[in-house]
Design a protein that fits this description.
Layout lengths: L13 H30 L36 E6 L5 H15 L3 E3 L10 E2 L4 E3 H6 L1 H4 L1 H4 L4 E7 L3 E2 L10 E4 L4 E6 L13 H19 L20 H6 L10
Parallel strand pairs: 1-2, 1-5, 4-6, 5-8
Antiparallel strand pairs: 3-4, 7-8
């Protein structure tokens, strides 16, 4: 190193210095952009998903609007699927899901009796519900269906979930398959966009992708995939991962 430069670490050419400055400004811009939602939320300027804040407790109640189309057990013979509305699940969303799987997959999904979520399941500090516990609670509400190896139960809730033993801020859902097949899907985070809430169609699409993944695992017996666009993508960490996933499952897989 020439003596007159000392410990100068900056590029010597004008072009290199410009590129370094642009890279620095770009990095600052990305950091600022990532902080915008948190700042807006702190200032009360960013919309919150349904079942946030003071509405959280009331969302634990059963959705009575779905009672007319509900049944007390997952009726039928052979392998079958039933959806369990847990808390104040959106009735329109449930109907759209049922219609979609009937039209696209030829799969008739039953809707079981809307069920309230016990208040003690809501973690007072996290203000979330443990996804595994909510899935296990299906055994109390529908014991015959829960332990029937031919029945796939999927709970659907508007409440925010988390996963025990994981250092995650939230969970989209939880699934177990094998001797018994059951899962829960939360629509809470499906509403979240970059600078506000997304529209109903996007919420339906994201929820459907989680349901399709769980149906692929539990009903069709398919393996998980490392391909980000696959309906069975293994590492869903954000709504943006959901948005990249494609559906439906291929006819061959079904």
């Amino acid at each position: 190193m020439p003596a007159d430069r000392g410990y100068d670490i900056f590029p010597r050419t004008f072009k290199a210095r410009v590129l370094l400055a642009l890279a620095f400004l770009g990095g600052l811009g990305m950091i600022a952009l990532s902080l915008v939602p948190a700042v807006l939320l702190f200032m009360g300027l960013l919309e919150r998903p349904p079942c946030s804040g003071s509405a959280r407790e009331s969302c634990l109640q059963a959705q009575v609007e779905l009672a007319p189309i509900a049944q007390s057990s997952c009726e039928g013979v052979g392998r079958r699927v039933c959806l369990v509305p847990l808390g104040q699940t959106d009735p329109d969303l449930v109907q759209e899901l049922v219609d979609y799987y009937r039209e696209v997959y030829g799969l008739d999904i039953g809707v079981l009796t809307p069920t309230a979520i016990p208040a003690e399941m809501l973690d007072p500090e996290r203000r979330q519900i443990a996804s595994e516990s909510l899935a296990d609670s299906l055994a109390t509400s529908f014991p015959d269906d829960y332990y029937d190896p031919d029945v796939v139960l999927i709970g659907l809730t508007p409440l925010d979930l988390y996963t025990k033993g994981r250092d995650w801020r939230f969970a989209f859902g939880h699934a177990e398959w094998g001797a018994e097949s059951r899962a829960v899907v939360s629509t809470y985070r499906m509403h979240v966009g970059t600078f506000g809430l997304v529209d109903h169609e996007r919420v339906v699409e994201r929820t459907r992708k989680m349901m399709t993944k769980y149906l692929g695992l539990m009903y069709y017996g398919l393996p998980l995939s490392d391909e980000p666009t696959s309906p069975l993508f293994n590492r869903i960490l954000s709504v943006y991962d959901l948005d990249r996933m494609e559906e439906p499952l291929s006819a061959a897989d079904r």
